[in-house]
Structure formats: C-alpha cells, structure tokens
Amino acid sequence: MKMNQFFMAAGCAAMLSPVFAGGDGWTSDFAAAKKQAADEKKSLLVDFTGSDWCGWCIKLNEEVFQHDPFKEGVKDKFVLVELDYPRDKSKLSDETKAQNEELRKEYAVQGYPTILLMDEKGRPFARTGYQAGGPENYVKHLDELLAARTKRDEAFAAAEKAEGTEKAKALVAALDAMGLDDAVVSAQYGDVVAAIKEADPEDESGFIKKIESNKKFADFEDSLNALARENKHEDALALTEKAINSGDFEGDNLQQATMIKGMICAQMGDFDAALAALDAAKEVDPDSELASRVDTFKDRINQMKAAKEADKEESE
C-alpha cells in the first residue's frame, strides 16, 4: 500500500471508530456488553447520555468518568456501556441510532444522564445519575447500589420458599425495593410478574392492577403525545375525557389525566373548563405532590383569562 493510501485508510478507520465521552473502556454495543458481563461475571453500567448538549452529562464525564480512580474502581465490577443521544447525529451509525432509540423506549428513559445498573441479562437493579464529589465518591456510590443486586437475588430466593399470597407479597417487595419504573418492571421482570399472578390469582396485593393501570396510562400518554405533535387539541381533549371516564385509572394516574385535561382546555382558550378540571384533579388526592401545584397552575390560567377578557373589552 502506498503511504498516502495508508494514511487515508487509517483516517477513515478513525472516523468510523466511536469516540466515547467517558474515554476508553466503554462500548456502545449493548448485546456484546451483556455477553461480556456474563463471561466475566460482572454487572453492566449503562449511561444514557446526550454527549454534546446535556450539561449534567458533560459534567459527569468531566468530573468522574474520564478519571483514573473511576476507571480503576469499576473495572473489576462493571462493563461500561454508553448509549448516546447527541444533537449531531453524524456521530453515530444508523445501527447504533436504531439500537439506542429502542433501548431508550425499553428502559423508559426520559431524562439525561440516566445511569442504570443491570445484570448480565439486561435487567436493571438500580438507577442513578449525576453525583457531585468526584470519581472516588462516585465509585463508593456505585458500590452501595451494587449491593442492591445481592439484596434482589436474596429476596427472590427467599420468596421462592414461600407460597400463595405470601410469596406474591415477597416478590412485590423485592421489585418495589429497586425503585424501577413499572414499564421497566413489566418489560424486564416478566417472569417475576407472571409468578406474582400465579401465586396471587385474586390480586390481594394489588400489584397486578397497578401494573396494568400504569401500562394503560403509558399507552394513553403515547397516544396523547402523538396528537400533541399534530396540534390536534380537540382530539386530545376527547381522548383525555375518555381516559378519565373509563374507570381504568385511579389515584396518581387519574389525577394526572384530569390535570392534563385542564392544560388542554387552557390551550384551547376554555379557561373556565380548565379551572374546573384542575379543581377536580386536586380533589382526587388533595395531599399529593401534584395537588400542591394546582393553585400555581390556576393562578396562571386566571391571568390568561383576565388578559383575554381585557383584549375583548378593548376591541369592543
């Protein structure tokens, strides 16, 4: 090979090789990472990041991931996976972009950075994000979270020794202790959910009802977001009212849906309906964190209503 051809080939190879924000030691191949974790008996540390726009992601890389104490502290415990969602899409291959988007949905990731610790099967057992204090502190934090895997496995093993409702409640407690999104639990712990159903066919624990309700709410949100992108406010309002009246939702889900109705009505300029919906949302659970924000929303809507009435009077 001629010298200029050699440098051209080397340059192309460099451009095609992924550059990881955290430096060397990371991979973007999720399937390969799971296999490596299984072979080396390690856990996965999966970083969902926006490398060229997310301020906290950049801080996490600069303050923690790029430093030797972090690399040394995790090398024997974790396989490191970076799933990037950059604004500059040219940084990623089409295959990587498709993989990352699928995994973002599968693991219900809504903010960045999201750090999920997973076993070799890709089942999360802990969730975190940016932590101040530098690499040593972060490694200590990860070690504490890593203990959640041992507790999970011990809890599952103990539950297997129980029967009926007691077994179901023990499995539910093990899942709840991890603090994972219900959509992630359904997707990644389907065998455990099935075991709960079998052990508690009457659903005395209420777990299955909660899981199914949250799944329906997630589907409702997906449909609502699709309508919002097309500015179909009337269709969005009809969908929301149908969801509220379906009887499928209660508690937090019902409160959220009713509050969403108020926001849609406000966008449509029906401020009285918006205020009535917010009052109804607050009544669902007056002591909830969401209810504590209702008065702020109502103040804003009343301001919008007053401005509209003032404009009307001026035009007349």
Automatic annotation (TrEMBL):
Keyword Signal attributed: yes
Example GO biological process: response to stress
InterPro entries xrefs: AGR/TXD, Thioredoxin-like_sf, Thioredoxin_domain, TPR-like_helical_dom_sf, TPR_rpt
Start-end of each TPR repeat: 255-288
Pfam families the record matches: Thioredoxin_7 (PF13899)
The UniProt record lists the keyword Signal: yes
Highest taxon listed in the record's lineage: Bacteria
Record keywords: Signal, TPR repeat
Occurrences of domain Thioredoxin (ranges): 8-147
Signal sequence annotation: 1-21
UniProt-recorded name of the protein: Thioredoxin family protein
